[in-house]
Design a protein that fits this description.
This protein is mainly α and 368 residues long. The chain is built from 12 helices and no strands. Helices cover 86% and strands 0% of the residues. Helix 4 packs across helix 5, helix 7 runs antiparallel to helix 10 and helix 11 packs across helix 12. It is elongated and about 85 Å long.
């Protein structure tokens, strides 16, 4: 009877624990990207936090120094993230306004979407005529289906505003979580060692490997995208592509996706230059775009694989799969998950090797 009671209590505790764990996962899941951002930012900013903490401990207690160091590091991270986006937003606004003005009416004619669509028809039909393709009439279609166009645009626009609001909330959650991760990270290390079914040294090795992977992927991705976007922007400027800075900013974000992003940027620029009869510029941008795309084949593996010990094909699928599953943070989260998997694989291989060596020794001992 006593044995049954023990088994019942054990089964009930296990069911309660698993149920609570599942419920907690459901609650946290919507904020998983924010938590991943917090982990990534904490790893990247941890060296700065430690330097500040050591410097502040000379005047204050360790607890106060850790709190202030974490607060300062979080504020610096917020500025690093927000200030560039503010300036980029201002420049994008100027460039988009200029582009709209170029598409808009001239010679004192009244402003309106009808005139914009008419100008688009003129430019598009001039391009289609070169290939003897049928003409198009965007202005007439817009007039006939204006209500449908408005209703079609409203949904993605409202969805985009919802995404922007959720992104802002995720940033606040990520920075708040980052503050506690930096301040309490060392205190949480010992409970993590006790809960994880691995020796402490193996756990530290996995954490170290994850940190190295985050550094390598972040630095490699940013540097490669910056180099590609800079080369494309300079090439666009020389070739006479309108709004070259706007194309460069778009390239900076899209080039973070390996082997894909640069193509999405330079192919429309080539088509635009052909429409303007600038064939020399189109050929130059095409050659430059192909060369910039090839940079991914050796720069990204060199910057990422050399430090994280990940195979180039693993980096490729890790980044693409991470973006599809987690969004932008997947650029780092994908390879980070692969790094943890490879570290766990090394632990399993070591244990298998230990078992394989131990069995012949026992057979040898028994035989003697």
């Amino acid at each position: 009877m006593e044995n049954f009671a023990d088994k019942y209590r054990g089964a009930a505790f296990l069911a309660l624990f698993l149920g609570t764990l599942v419920l907690a996962a459901v609650i946290v899941f919507p904020f998983l990207p924010a938590l991943l951002w917090a982990v990534m930012l904490s790893i990247l900013m941890c060296p700065l936090y430690r330097k500040l903490s050591r410097a502040l401990q000379q005047k204050w207690s360790k607890k106060s120094a850790d709190t202030w160091a974490s607060s300062i590091t979080t504020m610096i991270t917020f500025l690093i993230i927000c200030v560039p986006f503010v300036f980029i937003g201002i420049f994008l606004y100027v460039q988009i306004s200029s582009m709209v003005a170029q598409l808009g009416p001239t010679n004192g004619q009244p402003h309106g979407l009808d005139q914009v669509f008419t100008n688009l028809d003129t430019n598009a039909n001039a391009f289609l005529a070169r290939f003897r393709l049928p003409h198009m009439n965007i202005a007439e279609y817009a007039q006939l289906h204006s209500s449908d166009i408005v209703s079609t645009i409203q949904q993605p626009v409202s969805h985009a505003f919802g995404k922007i609001a959720f992104t802002g909330l995720s940033l606040i959650i990520a920075l708040l979580t980052m503050f506690f991760m930096l301040r309490d990270g060392e205190r949480l290390r010992e409970p993590a060692h006790e809960l994880l079914p691995l020796p402490p040294e193996k756990t530290d090795a996995i954490l170290k490997r994850v940190g190295e992977t985050v550094y390598a992927v972040f630095i490699g991705t940013v540097l490669v995208a910056l180099i590609q976007a800079t080369l494309l922007a300079i090439g666009f400027r020389i070739a006479g592509v309108p709004n070259a800075f706007l194309f460069g900013i778009i390239a900076l974000f899209l080039c973070t996706i390996p082997l894909v992003g640069a193509t999405v940027v330079y192919v429309p620029a080539v088509v635009l230059l052909v429409a303007q009869s600038n064939y020399a510029g189109a050929i130059g941008i095409l050659i430059l775009g192909l060369a910039v795309t090839k940079l991914d084949y050796f720069l990204r593996p060199l910057l990422i694989g050399g430090r994280s010990n990940l195979h180039p094909i693993g980096i490729f699928f890790g980044i693409l799969g991470g973006v599809l599953v987690f969004g932008p943070v997947g650029l780092v989260a994908g390879p980070m998950v692969l790094a943890v998997l490879l570290a766990l694989q090394d632990v399993v291989r070591e244990r298998v090797r230990g078992t394989a060596i131990d069995v012949p020794n026992r057979e040898l001992t028994t035989g003697s």
